[in-house]
Specification:
Layout: H1 16-35, H2 45-55, E1 57-59, E2 68-70, E3 77-84, E4 88-95, H3 101-114, E5 118-124, E6 134-141, H4 142-155, E7 160-166, H5 167-173, E8 174-179
Length: about 180
Amino acid sequence: MPQNNEVQVLDLVANQEKVKKILDTAYQLQTLCSELKFNAFQPGAIKELKMATLLGHNWILNKALPDACSRSNSNVFYEYLSAKEKGNGQIDRFFKDGPGIQHEKYLQSMNRIDRNDCFYLAYTDANPCNPLDILRIYRVSTQKIKTETDRQLQKSKNNISHIGFDEEFAKENGELVYEKK
């Protein structure tokens, strides 16, 4: 894999047969996913589907909603965050509290936390060639996520931030619910 800004080029002529196989497989994957009404190449879709399978949840297709729900109660929602080992699972584009419209945006952002029964933080193999190799998943309460989010927002100099949760946070504030054997 490339290091920093090192450019690596895939020679499409020399690898023509493998590239054709990759594209044919991708089309087959999307055809199958289309039968279930989702885009296989939507960021995070396949990893979320795998997490839902490992955790025994139903996966929610609509990206504007939480990632999953309970199989026994479709009103019990879960949010999934994932990162490579030693990385941060993130909630993107979170608004800091402030006056006027900024406060409204903050409340909308916090609703993305509050609507969930809990969060699941997954950590995958650090090798970028293994993005679906989930090593550990932690269950973290919504309140712990909310407290940490407010802490990070207060420290931020920006009105819009990405909120990160590393594995240390997950270990200290959550419960290990899945570990690859």
